[in-house]
What does this fold into?
Amino acid sequence: MPALRQDKYKFVAGVDLGGTKIHTALADSRGGIVAEVRVPTGDHGPARIVAAIGRTVNEVGRMADVAVADIGALGIGAPGPLDIVRGVVHQSPNLGWYDVPLKEMLEQEVGIPVAVDNDGNVAALGELRHGAGRGNAHLLYVAVGTGIGCGLIFDGRVYRGAGYGAGEIGHMTLDPDGPRCACGNRGCLEALASGPAIARAARERAKKGGARAIVAAAGSCEAVTAETVAGVARAGDAEARAILAAAGRGLGTGIAAAVNLLHPAMAVVGGGVMQAGPLLWEPMEQEFRRRTLNC
Amino acid sequence: MPALRQDKYKFVAGVDLGGTKIHTALADSRGGIVAEVRVPTGDHGPARIVAAIGRTVNEVGRMADVAVADIGALGIGAPGPLDIVRGVVHQSPNLGWYDVPLKEMLEQEVGIPVAVDNDGNVAALGELRHGAGRGNAHLLYVAVGTGIGCGLIFDGRVYRGAGYGAGEIGHMTLDPDGPRCACGNRGCLEALASGPAIARAARERAKKGGARAIVAAAGSCEAVTAETVAGVARAGDAEARAILAAAGRGLGTGIAAAVNLLHPAMAVVGGGVMQAGPLLWEPMEQEFRRRTLNC
It folds into this structure.
């Protein structure tokens, strides 16, 4: 990320731009969050989404009684491969974006300097500086949501690979003949353990006459989401628990492979899907411990 | 690796210590090899192996008419996790070594400074400085032999992870219910595509009445090696070709996962098993291209 030293400024804004929500926070010079707001991303084009981001920045300023002119800079994490220098999002299938000059558009919208980076990278930096990963030179952060991506910290710095292309842990093959992935391959981690993959596993059981409690909770087969599955699993349903456990084992296997390869000091797992709770985490951790050499 | 700048010295020696052979080379100040020798490692303890390495160093000196006293330093790549500062090999199952102070023993044997590093790391450095990987900031080197390991170059330097533990690509799970691996897990890349895994696949076919041409070439089921399989495959045997192709697809899948995660500028694949030739490479490359996002 281009230099965005938060201690240079009295306040900075941070935006997590996802396929389902825009999450904007205002932080003080020590990184303490003083206001935050979440709004749905909506199924809109770049111009309307950038305008919506601008409104969230005004909103967090208003909530904390800070003028936008006193916000020194804005950092935004966006999904998909992007050019961090020019701030262009090359390709974000979940947003339907291709070559969107996000930095330029957002600077015009809010009138303050903007730095754009991959959402996995900024989450990894956040965990390194303010979260679970403090003090670790080598850190792996895995985000499990609509997609599965990761951020890599080596020697205290974000590692981006050639052409900023690193971090595609979601396209590690776990089952060569498994379900079709959005990338065109079969059996990718993302096709087995992302939010949409969990929902799809439930819908496939429903088509065979199973997953009745899940379909009942969602109202229809088409309305099933990973959240539905997690809620029904917490209520005790065995099928929902089996679906979450299978996704958890997939995550454990994939993260173990990355840890065997990279041996970071710590792996941190986050993202909306992890809110499913221990019924997802525990099988993940068990499988992770089984399949790592030195953990 | 502790500083071992080869241009400081008129001559340096390099040793590849493997489970089956000791391969020693003498190089001039530009890295040009002036003499090399290979001897079997043999099933011996550390003291006899260190003495054998010492004899190879004398031998390459004699071949090139260079006194051992004119060899400025010796670098040795050893398999398994090790401490590069103290030069201690912690664990090398293929050698049966545990906590062997290789640097100290070898310095006493040859009387010149010794640097010890993981064989994958030194192979990656070799490819970076003198081989296929020249000019690439980020490089993945995969060694396919008795085991499967790798060396990682990020920003032109060897990446070792926490506690020098990185590089265990061989223990990436490709098939959660696959064959048992030496590490205790199932379906690791190493259990599917290493030399011993290729030989085992042939022996398992033989036990079911198949692989007759392979067993005939080896003399007995127990005598089958990956080399036997490769030779019979080159002669046209369909079963031997299928075994090599399956191992190749496993390699392609595993290397694709590492490339998706790390996006190096180049991946280089070496090691004795790759001498099986195109019947192994071609399925590997096909599967690699199928399962990578940006290659």
